[in-house]
Structures are given as C-alpha cells and as structure tokens.
UniProtKB/TrEMBL annotation:
Origin organism lineage: Bacteria, Bacillati, Actinomycetota, Actinomycetes, Micrococcales
Name of the protein: Isoprenyl transferase
Organism superkingdom: Bacteria
Residues annotated as binding Mg(2+): D33, E221
Database matches in PANTHER family: DEHYDRODOLICHYL DIPHOSPHATE SYNTHASE COMPLEX SUBUNIT DHDDS, DEHYDRODOLICHYL DIPHOSPHATE SYNTHASE FAMILY MEMBER
Function recorded in the entry: Catalyzes the condensation of isopentenyl diphosphate (IPP) with allylic pyrophosphates generating different type of terpenoids.
GO molecular function: Z-farnesyl diphosphate synthase activity
Family named by the database record: Belongs to the UPP synthase family. Z-FPP synthase subfamily.
Needed cofactors: Mg(2+)
Binding site for substrate: G34, N35, R36, R37, W38, H50, S78, T79, D80, R84, R202
Length: 253
C-alpha cells in the first residue's frame, strides 16, 4: 500500500532506523522480475519496460550500500531467456550492455559477470568482460551481474571445471570419484570466494527461484514482493531486509 506524503517518508525512515547493523545480510540476491508485465499494464512496449527496469538498478545498489550489504547478485538474464523472441532479446541485451557499462563507468562498485558467457553474443560477452576488468580494483560493493545464468548450468560448469583441473594434474577417474566432495563444487562456482546469499528477493509476485543460485541458496532466506521490478521502491527493499532481520536462521541445523 502506498502511503501519502509525508507519512510515506516517515514510515520509510522508521523502517531504516529499525535495522540493526548486526542483522543485515552480507549478500543479497535479486531476481529482477516483471519488466514486461509492468510495460503491458502501462500500455508500453517491452523495450520500455526493460529500460525502466535497468534504471532501477543503481537505486537498489545505493540502498544496499546504505544498510551495509557487501555483495549484491542481480539476475538480469537467464539461460531460458535466450530463447525469447529475437527482436526483444536483441533489445534486452543492448539494455544490459548499456547498464553494465554505466555501472562500470561510475567506478563505485566492483562488477563481476556470472553466467555462461559462451552462450551470449560476442558483443554482450565483451561488454560484460570489459566492465569486470574496468572495476577489478574498485573497493566497494561487489555486484554480480548474472547474465546468461542458469543454476543447473552453473553446477554443470563447476563439475566440468573440477574434472578438467584434476585431469590436467594427472588424476585418474577413480581417484576423482573417490576424492570428490561438495566443497569441490563450491570452489568452482561462478561466485567462488564470495559469501552465499543470506537473502534472495524476487519481485512481481512470483514465488519461485527458477534456478537462481541453486547451490548457494541452500540456506538463504527468501522474500517475495508483489511489485513489478520497475515499481520496486526503497520501502519494499527495507521491508525485505527487515523481514530477514526478524527471522531466526537455523542454517540447516
């Protein structure tokens, strides 16, 4: 429910003040869902919806910095999305290239591409790599841009990477099978070396992960927001973080 000004601002400030620094997630994953439905309901083109959704990203990164989040993973394009209508996909890829370039140009955040870049057009893959290289030395919020990302594909790639590394070292198949452990997958994920997501947010009212960070989200808390991504507000973000802070995390125990 949207509160009238000035009550809305007061409520937002109270929400922010209620967050305890020790109860803020280190890593938030965000499924940016609802751009096309927002555009349809607004009588606009899908292209406009994708552009409006891209405009929301820097706001969410700022909000994350404000509350002390260290890592944000943004799921911008799944492997399944690569089968979309070619014209719409072409525009969406252009939007992604633009927004990733804009994030890198600000040099406020360290950008990392996570996904199967070999499945993307060369132009898009090059734009992602360029943004990653340009911000490799930035000491700030770590921003994973998940483009051409699928959780099953990531796990398969991690296993392939593990097998390749150890095969090159001369290990036999029997030796690999005997030594293989769950930690070996973690060491070869796209997000290796990063904390697993504490909180995963999905917009648009859909209550499923769709394969997002399948391995890493085993102990994550989930928050599903009804707002379409372009309409996602700071108060929605703060509500998600507050909900996380109020939960008793058992981490599988």
């Amino acid at each position: 429910m949207r509160l009238p000004h000035p009550l809305y601002g007061l409520y937002e400030r109270r929400l922010a003040a209620s967050l305890h620094p020790d109860r803020v997630p280190r890593h938030i994953g965000v499924i940016l869902d609802g751009n096309r439905r927002w555009a349809r309901d607004s009588g606009l083109s899908s292209a406009t919806g994708h552009r409006r959704g891209a405009d929301k990203i820097s706001d969410v990164l700022q909000w994350s910095e404000d509350v002390g989040v260290e890592v944000v993973t943004l799921w911008m394009l799944s492997t399944d999305n690569l089968a979309r209508d070619p014209e719409e996909l072409e525009h969406l890829l252009r939007v992604i290239e633009d927004v990733v370039g804009e994030l890198a140009a600000e040099r406020r955040w360290r950008v990392q591409a996570v996904g199967a870049l070999d499945m993307l057009p060369d132009r898009t893959a090059s734009a992602l790599k360029a943004a990653q290289d340009a911000t490799a030395d930035v000491q700030g919020l770590h921003v994973n841009v998940a483009v051409g990302y699928g959780g099953r594909r990531e796990i398969a790639d991690a296993v392939r990477s593990f097998l390749r590394v150890h095969a090159e070292a001369g290990a036999s198949l029997d030796e690999l099978a005997e030594a293989f452990d769950v930690e070996h997958i973690a060491q070869h994920l796209y997000t290796k070396g990063q904390p697993d997501p504490d909180l995963v947010i999905r917009t648009s009212g859909e209550q499923r992960l769709g394969g997002f960070l399948m391995w890493q989200s085993a102990h994550s808390e989930f928050y599903f927001c009804d707002a379409y991504w372009p309409d996602f507000r700071r108060v929605d973000f703060l509500r998600a973080v507050r909900a996380y802070s109020q939960r008793q995390r058992r981490l599988g125990r």
